[in-house]
Amino acid sequence: MTETLGGHVAATIVDVAREAGVSKTTASDALRGHGRVSDATRQAVLVAARNLGYSINRSARSLRTQTTGAIGLYIPQVLVRSEHYMSFVYGVVNEAAGSDYDVTVIVAGEEARPNYAPHVDGLVLIDPVEDDPMVERLTSTGLPVVSSERFPSGRQPAGVVWSDHGRYARELLDHLAARGARRPALIGSTTVSDWSMRIQGAYRAWCRLAGVEPVIAVAPFGADASLIQREAGAMLAGETGVDALIGAGDGVAAAVAPTLTAAGHVIGEDFLLASCVDSSALQVLNPAVTAIDTKGGEAGVACARMLFELLRGDADRGTSLELPLELLIRESTRGR
Amino acid sequence: MTETLGGHVAATIVDVAREAGVSKTTASDALRGHGRVSDATRQAVLVAARNLGYSINRSARSLRTQTTGAIGLYIPQVLVRSEHYMSFVYGVVNEAAGSDYDVTVIVAGEEARPNYAPHVDGLVLIDPVEDDPMVERLTSTGLPVVSSERFPSGRQPAGVVWSDHGRYARELLDHLAARGARRPALIGSTTVSDWSMRIQGAYRAWCRLAGVEPVIAVAPFGADASLIQREAGAMLAGETGVDALIGAGDGVAAAVAPTLTAAGHVIGEDFLLASCVDSSALQVLNPAVTAIDTKGGEAGVACARMLFELLRGDADRGTSLELPLELLIRESTRGR
DNA sequence: CTGAAAGCGCTAACAT
DNA sequence: ATGTTAGCGCTTTCAG
Predict the structure, then answer these.
(1) Which of B68, B77, B118 is facing A59, going by the closest CB pair?
(2) Nearest CA-CA distance, residue A62 and chain B, Å
(3) Chain B residues touching A116 at Cβ < 8 A
(4) CB of residue B26 closer than 7 A to nucleic acid strand D?
(5) Rg (CA), chain B
(6) Is the CB of B283 under 7 A from strand D?
(7) Distance from residue B142 (CA) to nucleotide C15 (C1'), in Å?
(8) Residue among A84, A108, A89 at smallest CA distance from B106
(9) B248 Cβ partners below 8 Å, 6+ apart?
């Protein structure tokens, strides 16, 4: 029995064993549901544990088994403003709770710690970015890694949950064309992630096929509205005939909408507007903005689940899973 | 030396001690900067550790010291969509990294786990809500708790970081009145948190002083836009003379703006609109919406810092800290 | 089916 | 200023 900060004492497995009249080995086996013990003794142990309010000392288990009971979730700082990622975090944490794992959040600043090694059994990386030193550090720990979206470098982590963003970008462009747009522009992300690269690639390819000159501006993911507005303004001033705009990041469409209106456009009629990432703000804009639902929560769940399969040995290294997305058509691309 | 998943071996403190030609106690003391050891030996140990790529086995330390090196951060699920909380998470994690602590995220679903006891040294609770069973569970662990915002029940956790939301709501109402509003309405939150209670309290008190009848509707924090629109519509249909609206939650203003415009109002002129929580969406709405900056990141930093002070014994139980906010005036309350 | 004993890596108490 | 020893609570041999 050990004193806790609460002043009461925490029962150890020895206490449970004594209460149940068995050895601590048997108590341990019973608690973990090993087949070794008879049903009768297992029940006795379980009852004893409940009576004593026993809960396992994870440090002791960790030391013995060389596991931690936690997974790490790396979130690049740039993502603070995106609902996609907040939902992703929830997905991961919920799924982990179901498997009795804790989730430790890792953010970029931690690279400052000299030789920081996260105290976890595996890692989930969100949207790994080329040349992120923290991604480098984390992948070189040797821990199994599952990433949401592929590595732009093409490197293969133990598991990948990815979506075909290029395909949905094409679908969105086709939709714009069907609604009358002749010359869609793109405001991409400066971030070199698989996501941003594929969207830009799909956009250029679509333009080539459609025989139109691509019009691209870029802004950092999560950039201030004022910066986005400046980039968009410069882009539109330098081109003629642009009649639709796709924003890659989820803040772009909201940021440029007032600029477009101020320029005399009627969004959804003479000018179409859409986003490659949905957010609740886009639903309530007037007009509501067409967007690709990137399913943050589902992606988080899928990543965590895959990591647990890898940890249990139920999945092989190199596994990958495609998560389908959905194009949500709203008024901003109604057309005339 | 222990095999890691990476295939290479991890050095233990014994390896470091052997390499440096000292006992493992001395190695341990040197590594932790205890005054026991001479400068010369400390250097030798540090060099040995670096050479071997030593990093401490936290499970072993945990077992020995009865500490975990992690703090828990409880996030009620209802908050997914709010930037305030995402920033808060960042604040906590960054501050924790600086003190070499990990952050374990706890979400509501975990109460399903039979007798879940988080494996942490202390807890940060975001906006504790009356009757949340998880808050109950967590506060009864006996671990030191710091909450962002006070408990609505009046209970005193070990530490509190709070803001005077009532005062800023009053300031906002005075501002609306100065800009010509005669009858401001409130769309509050159904959540029984200190934050929502104080805003509603301040609103009612202000109305009493101003001699106007309060007009209140409520919606759950983070509710769908459609629900908010319905509530707002019903409220405005049932009252006459309402010429301003304050939304408590950060999604309210964006949700009702189109409804108001559709009803023939010109926001910022004949009808003023404001929010008690800022978000980037409100900045880019047209017109931009006046809001109270709730300083999520700073609150997170302050909570984590206070928790570490409590853990070190540098602060007393019952400490509290007021975090000042800021009213950001934008075009939606320009007035005629 | 169950028990006894060893030991994971670390730090604290007690030596010197 | 440093070393020796014990032991945190658990799981895993190895013996019955």
Answers:
(1) B68
(2) 6
(3) 55
(4) yes
(5) 26
(6) no
(7) 36
(8) A89
(9) B186, B187, B188, B189, B196, B199, B200, B221, B275, B276, B277
Q: Which amino acid is at B149?
A: E
Shortest alpha-carbon distance between residue B208 and chain A (Å)? 33
Measured in whole angstroms, how far is the alpha carbon of residue B5 from the centre of its chain? Answer: 36
Cα dihedral sign, B317-B319-B320-B321:
negative
**What's the Å distance between residue A27 CA and nucleotide D15 C1'?**
18
The pTM for the full model equals: 0.91
- Beta bridge partners of residue A103, listed in sequence order: A71
| The length of chain A, given as a count of residues | 336
* DSSP summary character for residue B150: -
Q: What is the residue-level pLDDT of chain B in tens, covering all 336 positions? A: 444 444 457 899 999 999 999 999 999 999 998 877 899 999 999 999 999 989 999 999 999 999 999 999 998 866 656 889 888 999 999 999 888 899 999 988 766 665 677 899 999 999 998 888 889 889 988 899 999 999 999 899 999 999 999 999 999 999 999 999 999 999 998 888 999 999 999 999 999 999 999 999 998 887 888 899 999 999 888 888 899 999 998 889 999 998 899 889 999 999 999 999 998 889 888 899 999 999 999 999 999 999 999 999 899 999 999 999 999 999 999 988
Residue B60, CB, less than 7 Å from strand C? yes
Residue contacts between A and B (CB atoms, under 8 Å): 156
Kindly determine whether residue B59 and residue A57, on different chains, have CB atoms separated by under 8 Å. no
Q: How far is A208 from chain B (nearest CA, A)?
A: 33
Tokens of A64: 């013995």
